[in-house]
Structures are given as structure tokens and as C-alpha cells.
């Protein structure tokens, strides 16, 4: 089963998905942010669309980035991530007939790290603005996958 990662944002959400063995993370297209319930529905729609493409695309875990402060305390975005996980757990139970784990994952500084990676790669400001959430989701997923090994 694959792992699906989400980088929540106020403007955009970034997504990434693992390979079936949980070794690599590939970014997916970003989607608009917005109200929490709508973002959770968008996350499920993205998973349904991804799984519908091929049988081996089944997702077993959803990892939502938890933007804690550097000292480990909750930030405003962290509180939104906690609410997202709470709602996703409800939605998954209601709409998916199999067990899917939904969890928070510490994502301190992934957006900064994503920006730095793209600057080093020579990406324009416009590209960085549009792709930062994708790269951040990929970094969240890579951190989660590395910790599982």
C-alpha cells in the first residue's frame, strides 16, 4: 500500500505519494486550499482519483504535515493540521470500506527547505511559488518513509 502525504497551506495544498514499497516519494499536482471541510474533501477526491487509475495505487496511510514551531509548540497551521486529521478520520470511515491510517507528521521547516532546494536548482520565483507546496509534501513524505525504515 502507498503512503499519501499532504502539505496544508492557506492558498494551496501540496500532495505526494510513495511507490508501493514505500521507498520513494513522488510529488503530485497542487490543489487550492480554503475552508477545512472543503480541503478534506479535496484530499479524499485526490486519493480516489489516484486509486482509480490502477489497482496497485491503493493508499494505506495518509500523512498530514504538522507545522510546529521550532520549540515544538503548536502553531496556527498545526492546529489546522490537527483539525484536518480529525475530519479526515471521520470522512475515511464514512467513505472508504477499508482501514486507512491518518496521522500527523512533524514538518518543521519543510517549506523553507523546499524553497532552498528550488533556488539551488535555479527555479524562477513564479515556479517556486507554484511548486513549493509539491516539494514540501514530497519532503514530508520522505521524512515519514525514512523514519519507517
Topology, pairings included?
Blueprint lengths: L1 E6 L4 E7 L6 E8 L3 H18 L5 E8 L9 H20 L5 E6 L3 H11 L4 H24 L1
Parallel strand pairs: 1-4, 4-5
Antiparallel strand pairs: 1-2, 2-3
Describe this structure in words.
This protein has 149 residues and is an alpha/beta fold. It has one domain (2-148): YqgF/RNase H-like domain (Nucleotidyltransferase, domain 5), CATH 3.30.420. It is 49% helix and 23% strand. It has four helices and five strands, in the order E-E-E-H-E-H-E-H-H. A five-stranded mixed β-sheet has the order 3-2-1-4-5, sandwiched between helices. Strand 1 and strand 2 form a beta hairpin. The longest helix is centred in the C-terminal third of the chain and has 24 residues, at 125-148. It is globular, with a radius of gyration of 14 Å. The model has no long low-confidence stretch (mean pLDDT 88).
Précis, in short:
This protein has 149 residues and is an alpha/beta fold.
Describe the structure using short key phrases.
globular, 149 residues, 4 helices, 49% helix, Nucleotidyltransferase, domain 5, 5 strands, alpha/beta
Amino acid at each position: 500500500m502507498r503512503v499519501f502525504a499532504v502539505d496544508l497551506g492557506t492558498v494551496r495544498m501540496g500532495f505526494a505519494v510513495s511507490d508501493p514499497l514505500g521507498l520513494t516519494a513522488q510529488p503530485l499536482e497542487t490543489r487550492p486550499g480554503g475552508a477545512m471541510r472543503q480541503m478534506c474533501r479535496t484530499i479524499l477526491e485526490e486519493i480516489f482519483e489516484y486509486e482509480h487509475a490502477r489497482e496497485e495505487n491503493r493508499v494505506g496511510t495518509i500523512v498530514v504535515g504538522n507545522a510546529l514551531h521550532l520549540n515544538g509548540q503548536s502553531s496556527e497551521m498545526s492546529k489546522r493540521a490537527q483539525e484536518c486529521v480529525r475530519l479526515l478520520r471521520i470522512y475515511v470511515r464514512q467513505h472508504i470500506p477499508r482501514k486507512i491510517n491518518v496521522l500527523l507528521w512533524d514538518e518543521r521547516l519543510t517549506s523553507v527547505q523546499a524553497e532552498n532546494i528550488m533556488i539551488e536548482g535555479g527555479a524562477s520565483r513564479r515556479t517556486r511559488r507554484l511548486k513549493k507546496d509539491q516539494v514540501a509534501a514530497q519532503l514530508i513524505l520522505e521524512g515519514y518513509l525514512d523514519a519507517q525504515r
